[in-house]
Amino acid sequence: MESYDYIIVGAGSAGCVLANRLSAGGRHRVLLLEAGPRDRNPWIHIPLGYGKLFTDLRTNWAYYSEPEPHLGGRRIYNPRGKVLGGSSSINGLVYIRGQAEDFDAWRDAGNPGWGWSDVLPYFKRAEDQARGADDWHGAGGPLCVSDTAPHPLCDAFIDAAAEMQIPRNRDFNGARQEGAGYFQLTARRGRRCSAAVGYLRPALKRPNLRVVTEALAARVLFEGRRAIGVECRRGGAVATAMAGREVILAAGALATPPLLQRSGVGPLDLLKRLGIAPVLPHEGVGRSYQDHYQVRLVLRCARAITLNDDMLSLRRKLAMGLRYLLFRTGPLTIGAGYAGGFFRTPLAADGRPDVQCHFINFSVDKMGDALHPFSGFTASSCQLRPESRGEVMASAPDPAAPPAIRANFLAADRDRRVQVEGLKLLRRIMAAPAMRPFIAEERDPGPRVQSDDELLAFCRERGSTIYHPSCSCRMGTDALAVVDHRLRVRGLEGLRIADASIMPAVVSGNTNAAVIMIAEKASDMILEAA
Q1: CB of 86 closer than 8 Å to CB of 11
Q2: Is the pLDDT assigned to residue 1 strictly greater than 80?
């Protein structure tokens, strides 16, 4: 390949933002490398199509964790996007930013410029809010954010929460996060708005931007301790691209640490074990990893109004498809969270919601499986601020080898107790008068599971990730911090990281909006340095 000012590794949520912003104005030559293909699969652009992509190896890395010690040795499935747009092309589309206190905590941990008042302008700059601009939202940005149509099950859930003294909330990204309501999605007029659609497509015709797909980054090249380029594999050949200004890693929390480690930047014992010559021994690369853990209640519906029912009927399936083709409405436009809420358990001593619920009008044994052959729906509980931390390490020098992922779910006692309290709270909402007409029975875990110990055992046996990997190259000032507050890799020159891996702690909610914000802010930092 040629020489560029900037090389961006990974065309996911962050990489597409960076490619757009750094190539704007035409001053800088930018190369964007993506290991997967272009986003031509039609299921990418249909919101409910994420179910078709959940295990599709053409667009999904389909990682599995190492045996998790606190989950009975289970290996947890970790889908990640391998396509233009990355995980924003295969995720559940839910648009949540997190809590203001999350970002203030980042700032107070020694990261100036990352408080809520600092990052809110970047959330707003990114957003094209269907409701219009206000103090909390932006309009006219690249990322479309819109409402979903109501559903009687979701209405009943929100009413039931209100009966439990949980406030209704029309905007989880507004003045307060707490409450129950409908999620907004990164979609517009029935079509997914991935980072590739919102950010990359408008930039593709720029002569100073080159996008290379199916190019697997093997390692960052260094001259001393300065990053000077990237070596990648494409079509059976090895290619090298040189960077005159910076290399920016945006491969995500599961791919960025192994890439650094294969490049000689990581824990010294790992580099020795893999036979990789050290460039900069760094114990923090791959450490401090966090993810959200969810546990699901599955309920049999007393009325045939679920997506399960739509899929069981040929007539309803045909009507669903025709409705989407003609009007871009109907069940094919929903995301992985239809309604939901942010709730406080008795353990939320700081007054902030500590669990999130995703309420969905369908049910499965586990995500990715076929829908149940009965009327069913799902309500899940996810602890927002886990204390457990794990690691992400390269498993081999080969860049095609999957990473060794250990989330260490439920290692902390508080995490275990919050998960149990979250399930108990969900059960109380399901038992409220507004929900009773819709529930025939609780199928999973079922009425036999009642005590705290039984609920914890259910959490260990059936819980899973909710797909928010983060913090594996975290920002900070201590010895394990990988990047500084300008996202520069400590101890090196010409190398930054701008993806979910830099989060000091996972945000209180879905992570995609925060990743796009990180990339928006990173682009300003990079251009300021230029």
Answers
A1: yes
A2: no
357-361-365-370 Cα dihedral, nearest 10 degrees: -140
> Is it the case that residue 225 has pLDDT exceeding 80?
yes
Model confidence over 248-276: pLDDT tens digits? 999 999 999 999 999 999 999 999 999 99
Q: Which two tokens stand for residue 117?
A: 């008042």
Q: What is the DSSP letter of 264?
A: T
Contact 300, 375 (CB under 8 A): yes
> Are the C-beta atoms of 193 and 461 separated by less than 8 Å?
no
Q: CA 218 to CA 294: how far, in whole Å?
A: 33
**Which sequence positions are flagged as catalytic?**
468
Please identify which residue in the block is written with the tokens 């394990």. 480
Q: What is the DSSP letter of 458?
A: H
d(CA 198, CA 128): 10
Q: Is 315 left (phi over 0), alpha (psi -120 to 50) or beta?
A: alpha
Look up the pTM and report it.
0.98
Regarding beta strands 339-343 and 293-301, do their DSSP bridges make them parallel or antiparallel, or are they unpaired? unpaired
Q: Where are the domains of the chain?
A: 1-143+187-287+390-407+469-530, 149-182+293-383+408-468
For residues 528 and 233, give the distance between their C-alpha atoms in angstroms, rounded to a whole number.
Answer: 32
Largest CA distance in the chain: 68
pLDDT band at 484 (very low <50, low <70, confident <90, very high): very high
The pLDDT tens digits for 122-167 are: 999 999 999 999 999 999 999 999 999 999 999 999 999 999 999 9
Separation between Cα atoms, residue 349 and residue 127, nearest integer Å: 33
CATH 3.10.180.10 is held by the domain 149-182+293-383+408-468: no
Residue 421's pLDDT is what?
A: 98
Please report, to the nearest 10 degrees, the dihedral formed by the alpha carbons of residues 114, 118, 121, 123 taken in order: 20
CATH fold, domain 1-143+187-287+390-407+469-530, is FAD/NAD(P)-binding domain (3.50.50)
Q: Distance (Å, rounded) from C-alpha 394 to C-alpha 153? A: 44
Q: Are 192 and 335 in contact (CB under 8 A)?
A: no
In 10 A of CB 100, how many CB atoms?
Answer: 18
